[in-house]
Write a structure and sequence with these properties.
There is one protein chain. Strand 9 and strand 10 form a beta hairpin. The protein is about 35% helix and about 25% strand. The N terminus is likely disordered. Helix 1 runs parallel beside helix 2, helix 3 crosses helix 4 and helix 4 packs parallel to helix 6. The protein has an 8-stranded mixed beta sheet with strand order 5-8-3-12-7-11-9-10. Strands 1-14 form a two-stranded antiparallel ribbon. The chain is an alpha/beta fold and about 300 residues long. The protein has 2 domains: about 260 residues, no CATH class; about 30 residues.
Length: about 300
């Protein structure tokens, strides 16, 4: 099975934010400002791929209750999108849109689902192919901006495809990722009414995808909106160019571990500090063994 490597885009952000419209009850976020380059690290922490701290945001999670899906909306040309979301300011130092996908691919391999929508369509794993076959009623989209209408239609198609696969995703033990790119508002000179209509349509699309994910994955869903106000691309490396590579484990050992995880239904994620935890338990065990040995030898040598 193939997977899509997202391009690495570095953008200049004048007044940007990250908003969470859906978070599991097991996750609590607090803070004020997040560096934009740390968005992928934040998401990796939320998904349980790491427990490394993220500068600017305090994260409290339950190791035994992890999200099974995350949807990330990248919206250019707006400060915020939702009025009913937990929001943090993004401080510009570039956006890395590839590291999270690399971590997920190495952890779950071909087991996971991935889809990315844009005005040109939906790409990704099998769910993306199913989404392209869907038909939706575009009359629910009120904006007259044709490019934005095209982008939002793809979101509704993806939501419809996800709903149709509820039986499959209900038993999923991976972390599936859905990315939505909305770029049509960037650089447009819109009236207040036109902008309000466009943002309302985006909010409706966010709610539709959130509803579909919640119906399928239950409460373990993360939905975030990364609003990039007046985003200006300072540097871009093959943006939107899709390249593919195998996601099967790169070594025989990795392949065996992936097979064991599937066989024994191991779905709890490990973190980067696992070796330290292991060392603590190992050290404690050795200390107990030495204590017992010392006591035994002492008793045997007593007069």
């Amino acid at each position: 099975m193939k997977w899509i490597i997202l391009s690495l885009a570095v953008v200049g952000i004048t007044a940007s934010s990250i908003q969470f419209t859906s978070l599991p009850k097991s996750i609590t976020l607090s803070g004020n400002v997040l560096k934009s380059s740390k968005v992928s690290d934040l998401n990796a922490n939320i998904l349980g791929l790491t427990t490394n701290p993220v500068q600017g945001i305090e994260i409290e999670t339950d190791l035994f209750s992890r999200p099974h899906a995350i949807a990330a909306f990248y919206v250019e040309g707006v400060d915020t999108v939702s009025d009913n979301a937990q929001s943090f300011t993004l401080e510009d130092n570039g956006l890395d849109l590839i590291s999270l996908d690399s971590k997920l691919a190495l952890t779950f391999g071909a087991d996971r689902e991935f889809a990315q929508t844009s005005r040109s369509g939906v790409s990704g794993s099998s769910i993306a192919g199913l989404a392209t076959e869907q038909t939706v009623d575009a009359s629910i989209i009120k904006t007259k901006i044709e490019s934005l209408r095209s982008e939002l239609v793809q979101v509704y198609k993806l939501a419809k495809a996800i709903r149709s696969q509820s039986a499959k995703f209900e038993i999923s033990e991976t972390a599936d990722v859905y990315r939505v790119d909305i770029k049509s508002l960037s650089g447009l000179n819109l009236s207040d009414d036109e902008r309000a209509t466009a943002i309302a349509d985006i909010n409706n699309a966010v709610q539709e995808l959130t509803s579909a994910l919640s119906n399928v994955y239950g409460e373990q869903v993360v939905v975030e909106i990364i609003a990039l106000s007046s985003a200006i691309k300072n540097a871009e490396v093959e943006n939107h160019k899709i390249s593919k590579r195998d996601v099967t484990p790169v070594t025989a050992t990795d392949q065996k571990l992936a097979q064991y995880r599937k066989t024994f239904n191991v779905s709890v994620f490990t973190s980067s500090d696992y070796p330290a935890i292991f060392a603590i338990f190992l050290g404690t065990s050795l200390a107990l063994v030495l204590a017992v040995l010392y006591a035994t030898v002492g008793m045997m040598t007593m007069d």
